[in-house]
């Protein structure tokens, strides 16, 4: 079968492409934008990628068009699909019908930590010999690709609450029908489609409704929003983490002691920095245990986890200055990422932020942003031309020096002028940020 994917360079749709190719389908795709790691993953798989959304890309007609949620009415390729009467489907629906049906799906949902937790869960199941399939919104370094079909019955999926497609406004995760569902945390996000936190809580409850009675919900025991979700109705076993009566971690040096239902299971050596990653690890452990992975196997495997690209990823060093890349794009994620880097030995932290997500650009988190940067020593913010708020005014309350720059070249110059040997530059954005990592390394070296 020939699938043509519209919006193929999104992390989710690129994963669909990889799985479809592995399943033996012919896969082509088109997108307006393409940047690593997804563009390079597609190229490595030999998937034909076309730029833009031209109707000619759909001639001759594929057997089915898989539509990403970046595609809207008015898109030339989509208008051609509709006019020509070509069969089309959303990515989540195609995955549910062609890959997930009949398998034990482990879905990882939450505002933060989905990619790390789902990547870790897939790695742990692999270590336990379960040979899982997976689709995550990043590239787990242990696997080198964002998705695979897998040989075993288990399938791990990063379960996003964003809407499915222009013709299906339900959250993506309602398609997945998990038997194990991780609810990592829940905060307000996606201001472009959700009016308030209560609306997102309702979508999370739609996910809860799809978990069978024999299934398991792995829930953050410290999250009030998730407790409200469960109060709407719950029909499955609930296992809590970060909870005295459930799965919890007591820090011990660079690792932690694992307790399950009050009983110590041993000291865990972890390669992941930060309290948020201890929570992610507990969630992954509790989910893996639901499919029979022994706890001692999980503990033994954890030190070999290599994390995910764009999660505190060291991109290079020049003149003694290290440049890190991270996907953080929400005030909470920014704060915990800075805290995690601070836990590691090193010099000053220079935070560099691009407020790029729809929620950030709309200004929904503008009031929280200033103090999310307090973990840095100095901060630089790119005041994109499409911001709907005044970055300089919003950041005036920060407790650390913050400079805002509307000009990209001036931003690079200011960071380069400030940085000195021993510093760590932490770049945070959910996009490619104009290739700023390479620009900074080149400017520092020069």
From TrEMBL:
Domain Mur ligase C-terminal: 310-431
Top-level taxon of the source organism: Bacteria
Reaction catalysis annotation: UDP-N-acetyl-alpha-D-muramate + L-alanyl-gamma-D-glutamyl-meso-2,6-diaminopimelate + ATP = UDP-N-acetyl-alpha-D-muramoyl-L-alanyl-gamma-D-glutamyl-meso-2,6-diaminopimelate + ADP + phosphate + H(+)
Function description: Reutilizes the intact tripeptide L-alanyl-gamma-D-glutamyl-meso-diaminopimelate by linking it to UDP-N-acetylmuramate.
Enzyme superclass (EC): ligase
Protein name, UniProt field: UDP-N-acetylmuramate--L-alanyl-gamma-D-glutamyl-meso-2,6-diaminoheptandioate ligase
Cofactor(s) recorded in Swiss-Prot or TrEMBL: Mg(2+)
Family annotation (PANTHER family): UDP-N-ACETYLMURAMATE--L-ALANINE LIGASE-RELATED (PTHR43445), UDP-N-ACETYLMURAMATE--L-ALANYL-GAMMA-D-GLUTAMYL-MESO-2,6-DIAMINOHEPTANDIOATE LIGASE (PTHR43445:SF5)
Residue ranges of every copy of the Mur ligase N-terminal catalytic domain listed in the record: 2-98
Keyword Cell wall biogenesis/degradation listed: yes
GO-annotated molecular function: ATP binding; UDP-N-acetylmuramate-L-alanyl-gamma-D-glutamyl-meso-2,6-diaminoheptanedioate ligase activity
Name of the gene: mpl
Entry keyword annotation includes Thylakoid: no
NCBIfam families: mpl (TIGR01081)
Pathway in which the depicted protein is active: Cell wall biogenesis; peptidoglycan recycling
Residues binding ATP, per UniProt: 110-116
Pfam families for this protein: Mur_ligase, Mur_ligase_C, Mur_ligase_M
InterPro entries given in the database record: Mpl (IPR005757), Mur-like_cat_sf (IPR036565), Mur_ligase_C (IPR004101), Mur_ligase_C_dom_sf (IPR036615), Mur_ligase_cen (IPR013221), Mur_ligase_N (IPR000713), MurCDEF_pg_biosynth (IPR050061)
SUPFAM superfamilies: MurCD N-terminal domain (SSF51984), MurD-like peptide ligases, catalytic domain (SSF53623), MurD-like peptide ligases, peptide-binding domain (SSF53244)
Stated family: Belongs to the MurCDEF family. Mpl subfamily.
GO BP term, pick one: cell division
Organism: Hydrocarboniphaga effusa AP103
Keywords assigned: ATP-binding, Cell cycle, Cell division, Cell shape, Cell wall biogenesis/degradation, Ligase, Magnesium, Nucleotide-binding, Peptidoglycan synthesis
Limits of the Mur ligase central domain: 108-288
UniProt-listed Enzyme Commission number(s): 6.3.2.45
